[in-house]
Write a structure and sequence with these properties.
49% of the residues lie in helices and 14% in strands. The longest helix is centred in the N-terminal third of the chain and has 32 residues. It is an alpha/beta fold and 582 residues long. The radius of gyration is 26 Å and the shape is globular. Helix 19 packs across helix 22. A hairpin with a 4-residue loop joins strand 7 and strand 8. It is built from 22 helices and 17 strands. About 1% of the residues have low confidence.
């Protein structure tokens, strides 16, 4: 294979075959090889970006001149002249041509040279000049990176994205219909980007050192998200074998889909609710509503992330109403805005934090910036008139937070009724259990809400003190740690004691064997990505609830993650037969 087959870490299952596009969606500028025949195209991209940057500088000059005077606007004229420096332009073009690298990397090298040369000199005025020289070229870099996405969108080509790091921004870089799969040099198995890739059903592999240095734009790649590998420039014979595997997987999926409308009822009569997680309005077209028991989690922050400004009450109302009407009587659980951490809004500037996972995020932001919360609650409550809409509170750490939301909820409901809006008489409000304080005071939480939903993605990182987006410790993030299994069992028991419906909406629930474990613990429902619904229903229908309880008890007795995984393997053996395990 001569290093054409590269092993990484499987993050999201599935097979993809197509051409690669190196995505520019991170803070760092990636470098990749450019084919000899594509060098003129790359220099053409540079010229277009230079023109765009010059136009922006002229727009800024005119705007500043009109408001504060021509003298203050002079700097932008100087910046335009800097971009016209033939020596700098020749240097970037020669870097592209001689090193056969992308324009973004060549521009970044020029900026780095300016800063290294000027920054080492003494005197604040000299260092300020270094900034003046490099700033206009940063505009060129921005133009190149923005044009990159626009050009791919315009072609409508389906591609496999490659990036330096797996982030939510990378996963949502293109429309879902254009994205075949994702490869990344870095990124955790349970990072937000990985969770999103699984939720969207995008095959994904991470942990591939020096990936970008091995790629060229447009290179053919076969990506295997099941085994965690990719094959560069596959031969015709290799493509044929790969396509046979892909066809076999599709046949298996269609076989499971035939019975997917049937409920997830065990042979001895216990039914597990199987709901779906929804990331975007577009996801509503990716599954048959007759195959699911409702939307268990709609992450409303992605409605915000897809925009360039805050959506108005009317815009949110129309979106939420559309979801409720589309589900045709099935319950829809909308989670209140959960931004912060690695889900920043480009138009909302939150403070930089040393540890965002423990910082200003989720309900902490919306309780402090109540205008966000008021607008969203008004939109949600108006949409309740059209179906069974439920509201879920994220990142709850105390009963006081729940009471604050309830008070605001009651105030807004009364206000809407006075204004003549129709609002459903009974609206269920639930809490995410994802922080240890909520788990340890669960009896009080249960008394204050109508239902609970366990967010295992965050619960695991907080229980184990592991930031799942930190590559240095991501290997310690283990959803099958005995402490996590015991916490899940205790949550289910406490919820049952207080007659509070309990579900699991985190990433763990998407694994059929884990869903059996959760059934045995006593959970009422799971909420998973649409593509996992058929497999989970199949597994539940083949497992008696008494056997699921026995598996749960066996898992609780384990003192290592390896022991818990052994129990999950035995569940798979019992469901599919030993020959199909793994």
């Amino acid at each position: 294979m001569q290093n054409r087959e590269i092993q990484g870490t499987a993050v999201s299952p599935g097979l993809a075959l197509g051409t690669v596009h190196v995505v520019l969606a991170g803070p760092d500028v990636p470098t990749w090889s450019v084919r000899h025949e594509d060098v003129p195209l790359e220099i053409g991209r540079l010229a277009s970006a230079l023109n765009e940057a010059a136009e922006k500088l002229e727009e800024r000059r005119k705007r500043v001149a009109a408001t504060t005077g021509e003298k203050d606007a002079e700097i932008f004229a100087v910046h335009r002249l800097i971009l016209q420096d033939p020596g700098a332009m020749r240097e970037v073009e020669e870097t592209i041509s001689d090193q056969r690298i992308n324009a973004e990397a060549a521009v970044q090298m020029l900026i780095a040279r300016f800063e290294a040369t000027m920054g080492s000199l003494e005197g604040d005025s000299v260092r300020a000049y270094a900034s003046d020289v490099s700033d206009p070229w940063r505009l060129v870099l921005d133009a190149l990176m923005q044009r990159d996405r626009e050009e791919v969108l315009q072609t409508q080509a389906k591609v496999i994205l490659a990036a330096a790091e797996l982030t939510p921004k990378v996963v949502t870089f293109l429309e879902r219909g254009q994205l075949l799969g994702v490869l990344a040099e870095a990124g955790g198995r349970f990072s937000h980007g990985a969770v999103l890739a699984r939720a969207l059903g995008i095959p994904c592999v991470v942990g591939i050192p020096n990936l970008l240095a091995r790629l060229e734009q447009g290179m053919s790649i076969a990506l295997d998200g099941n085994r965690g590998m990719c094959l560069l420039r596959p031969s015709e014979e290799e493509i044929e074998v790969f396509l046979e595997r892909k066809a076999s997987a599709e046949e298996r999926r269609h076989e499971l889909m035939r019975d997917s409308a049937e409920p997830a009822t065990t042979p001895d009569g216990h039914t597990l609710g199987v709901h779906v997680n929804v990331e975007s309005i577009r996801d509503l077209d990716t599954f048959d509503i007759s195959h699911v028991d409702g939307v268990g989690l709609l992450r409303t922050e992605f409605l915000y992330l897809e925009r360039s400004s805050f959506p108005s009450e009317e815009e949110q109302y129309r979106m939420y109403r559309r979801v409720v009407e589309r589900m045709n009587g099935h319950p829809v659980t909308l989670r209140l805005l959960d931004i912060g951490g690695d889900k920043p809004l480009p138009y909302f500037h939150a403070p930089k934090e040393n540890n965002p996972a423990l910082g200003w995020r989720g309900i902490r932001i919306t309780l402090q910036w109540r205008d966000f919360l008021r607008v969203q609650l008004r939109a949600m409550l108006r949409a309740t008139a059209f179906g069974d809409l439920r509201i879920l509170m994220p990142m709850i750490t105390s009963v006081e937070e729940i009471r604050e939301i309830h008070d605001l909820f009651a105030e807004i409901r009364e206000q809407l009724l006075e204004q003549g809006y129709e609002v459903r008489e009974r609206v269920s409000v639930g809490a995410m259990v994802e922080v240890p304080s909520a788990f340890l005071t669960l009896e009080h939480v249960c008394d204050a809400v109508d239902f609970i939903s366990v967010g295992t993605n965050d619960l695991v990182q907080y229980l184990l003190a592991v930031d799942r987006d930190n590559s240095w410790v991501s290997s310690l993030y283990d959803p099958f740690h005995p402490a996590v299994i015991r916490a899940l069992h205790q949550i289910a028991e406490k919820a049952r004691e207080h007659a509070t419906p309990a579900s699991v909406c985190g990433d763990m629930a998407g694994d059929p064997a884990t869903a059996i474990l959760l059934t045995g613990m006593g959970y009422d429902a799971v909420s998973v990505a649409p593509q996992f619904v058929p497999e989970i229903k199949y597994a539940v229908r083949r497992t008696e609830s008494s056997k699921a309880r026995a598996f749960a008890m066996e898992a609780l007795e384990q003192d290592t993650s390896e022991g818990v995984r052994g129990v999950l393997d035995r569940i798979r053996d019992a469901t599919y037969g030993p020959e199909t395990t793994g």
